[in-house]
Design brief:
single chain, about 475 residues, alpha/beta, TIM Barrel, nine-stranded mixed β-sheet, three-stranded antiparallel β-sheet, 19 helices, binds iron/sulfur cluster
Length: about 475
C-alpha cells in the first residue's frame, strides 16, 4: 500500500476556495435570494447559504457547482472567476464611455391640454415668453453635439412641442448639417399628445426620420378623464394620430406611454386591451412621478408603492396570457429589468443606473436656455426648487455643465455601489441611483431607502420577475424572449 495515498488526500480542502462578493435577501421562511457582483442570482435555503458562507462545499454536492456557476466562489490562486466578473462589470458599465446620448429640447411650455397630473407647469398664453427661440436652440445644439456619445438622440418636449413646430424643423435641419463634419449619428423624437398632428408635420417627420412618442392612458373614458382639453376629445385625437402615423410613416414610428393614476388602478386589463386595439408594440406600466402638477393637484399621493405593484403584477399576468396566445407584446418595464437580469448589456435607461443618469445620460435645455440635469430636474425647478440647474446655454459649454459642482456632487453622493442599504442589496446591479426623486421626496440625494417608494417598487418588481423566471417555466420562456 506504500505507493498510494489515502482517498482523503484527493479531496480538495475547503480552504482551497474563496468567497467572492455576494449579497442576499430573505424571500421566505427558509428561502434566500443570493446574488453576485453582476446580478446573477440563485435561490438557497438557510442551510445552503450557511454552507456557502463557510465554504463548506464539496465537488459533486450540487451546491459547489452552483456556487462556481454563479461566480459566488473561486479557487484560491486562480483568477479566472475574478477576471470574468471584472469583464462583465465593465460591459455592464460601458454606458459611461458614451456620455450624454440624450438631449431634451423644451421648445415651448405652452400646452392646450390641462392634465391634473401633468409633470410640467403648462402655460397656455404668451407665445413669446414661453417659446424657445432660434438663438437659444442654436447654442443648445452646439452643446448637444459636443457630447462624447456617437449617437445623439434629440427629443422635443413641452408643454406641447407641436405648438412650436417651426423651431423643431429648424433644429432638425440644422442638427443634420452640423453633425456631418463631426461624424455623429442622430435620432429625433417628438413627445406629443398628437392633438395638433397635421399633414405638414407628417410630411416633415417622414422625410427626416423623426419618431413620435405619445401618451395613451387607456380607453376613451379614462384617457379623457386624465387628460382634459376643450372639446373633451384628447382620446379621439390621440388614437386618430397614432393611426395616421402608422399608415403614413410605418407601424414602428410611434410609441405610447401611459401614466397610472388612481383611476387606472382597477382597469389594467382594459388599458392593455386599448394598447392591443391600437396596434401598439407593447406597454410601459408607469407609476406617477412626484413632480409638477402631480404634486400641486395631490395626484401623486393617491396611491402607494404597494398599490402600484398590485396593479403592475395584475397587468403583467394579463400581458403574459396575451403573449401565450401568440402575440408578442412586452411590458417594457419588465423587459428593461429582464435585460439587466439576463444579460450584461449596458443600460441606456437614464433613471435606472448608477452612477446616476442625470447629466451623464441626458441634458435638458429649457425654453429660456437654462440647462437641467434631467426632465424631472426641470419639473422641480418649475415648482421653485432649482437644485439641479446646471447652467445656461449662453454661458456654459458641455464640459462646464457635466463638470459643474452641482452635477458632480449629485452623482457622487448618490452612488448605489457605496450607499447604505444599496451596497448590501442583492438587487443593486439591476437598480439605479435616482437623486432627483429622492431629493424631491426625502430632501436627500441618496435617499433613506427603507422609506423610499422607488426602492419598494424596485424590490417588488425584481423579486416577482425572479420568482417567475425560477418557478414558472412557461412565463419564463416569454420573459426571456422579451429580454432579447
Ligand atoms: S434602491 Fe432599494 S432595491 Fe435599489 S439597490 Fe437600493 S436598496 Fe436595493
Amino acid at each position: 500500500m506504500a505507493g498510494f495515498a489515502s482517498p482523503d488526500a484527493f479531496s480538495p480542502e475547503t480552504s482551497a476556495l474563496q468567497l467572492l462578493p455576494i449579497r442576499f435577501e430573505r424571500l421566505g421562511a427558509d428561502r434566500f435570494l443570493v446574488g453576485n457582483l453582476v446580478g446573477d442570482m440563485a435561490e438557497m435555503t438557510a442551510g445552503e447559504l450557511d454552507r456557502l458562507c463557510t465554504l463548506d462545499l464539496t465537488p459533486g454536492d450540487g451546491l459547489y457547482e452552483r456556487a462556481f456557476e454563479k461566480l459566488f466562489v473561486a479557487s484560491v490562486g486562480q483568477r479566472a472567476q475574478q477576471q470574468l466578473l471584472a469583464l462583465r462589470l465593465r460591459s455592464r458599465m460601458s454606458f459611461l464611455r458614451a456620455a450624454t446620448p440624450l438631449h431634451l429640447f423644451v421648445v415651448t411650455l405652452r400646452c392646450e391640454h390641462s392634465c391634473p397630473y401633468c409633470q410640467v407647469s403648462r402655460q397656455s398664453k404668451d407665445r413669446v415668453r414661453y417659446d424657445m427661440d432660434q438663438a437659444t436652440a442654436s447654442k443648445a445644439l452646439d452643446i448637444a453635439l459636443s457630447a462624447p456619445a456617437q449617437l445623439i438622440k434629440i427629443e422635443f418636449q413641452g408643454g406641447e412641442p407641436l405648438l412650436n413646430f417651426e423651431l423643431i424643423q429648424w433644429i432638425v435641419l440644422t442638427a443634420k448639417e452640423r453633425s456631418v463634419p463631426l461624424g455623429k449619428q442622430l435620432q429625433f423624437v417628438i413627445a406629443t399628445n398628437l392633438a395638433l398632428l397635421d399633414d405638414e408635420v407628417l410630411d416633415f417627420c417622414g422625410e427626416h426620420d423623426v419618431l413620435f412618442s405619445t401618451s395613451l392612458d387607456g380607453p376613451r373614458e379614462l384617457h379623457n378623464k386624465n387628460r382634459p382639453r376643450r372639446g373633451q376629445n384628447s382620446y379621439e385625437l390621440a388614437v386618430a394620430g397614432i393611426a395616421r402615423i402608422k399608415e403614413r410613416l410605418g407601424p414602428d414610428r410611434v410609441g405610447a406611454l401611459m401614466t397610472t393614476t388612481e383611476a387606472s388602478l382597477d382597469s389594467v386589463e382594459e388599458i392593455v386591451d386599448e394598447y392591443l386595439k391600437q396596434g401598439l408594440e407593447g406597454i410601459f406600466l408607469r407609476p406617477l412621478s412626484p413632480y409638477g402638477f402631480a404634486i400641486k393637484t395631490k395626484q401623486f399621493h393617491k396611491y402607494d408603492a404597494q398599490e402600484w405593484l398590485q396593479f403592475w403584477k395584475r397587468g403583467l399576468r394579463y400581458i403574459l396570457d396575451v403573449n401565450r396566445s401568440g402575440r408578442h407584446f412586452p411590458e417594457f418595464y419588465s423587459a428593461l429589468m429582464l435585460r439587466r437580469m439576463l444579460s450584461d448589456e449596458p443600460i441606456g435607461y437614464v433613471d435606472l443606473r448608477s452612477p446616476a443618469g442625470i447629466g451623464l445620460g441626458a441634458l435638458v435645455y429649457n425654453y429660456d436656455g437654462t440647462v437641467f440635469a434631467s426632465d424631472e430636474a426641470r419639473m422641480l425647478a418649475e415648482m421653485g426648487d432649482r437644485s439641479f440647474e446646471l447652467g445656461n446655454v449662453n454661458e456654459h459649454s458641455y464640459r462646464d455643465l457635466v463638470l459643474s459642482d452641482t452635477l458632480v456632487s449629485a452623482v457622487a453622493e448618490s452612488l448605489t455601489q457605496t450607499a447604505p442599504q444599496c451596497s448590501t442589496c442583492v438587487f443593486e446591479p439591476h437598480c439605479g441611483a435616482d437623486p432627483v426623486y429622492h431629493h424631491a421626496t426625502q430632501g436627500d440625494l441618496l435617499g433613506i431607502k427603507p422609506l423610499s417608494e422607488f426602492c419598494e417598487r424596485q424590490k417588488g418588481v425584481l423579486t416577482h420577475l425572479f420568482e417567475l423566471l425560477e418557478h414558472c417555466p412557461e412565463d419564463a420562456a416569454i420573459l426571456r424572449r422579451w429580454a432579447s
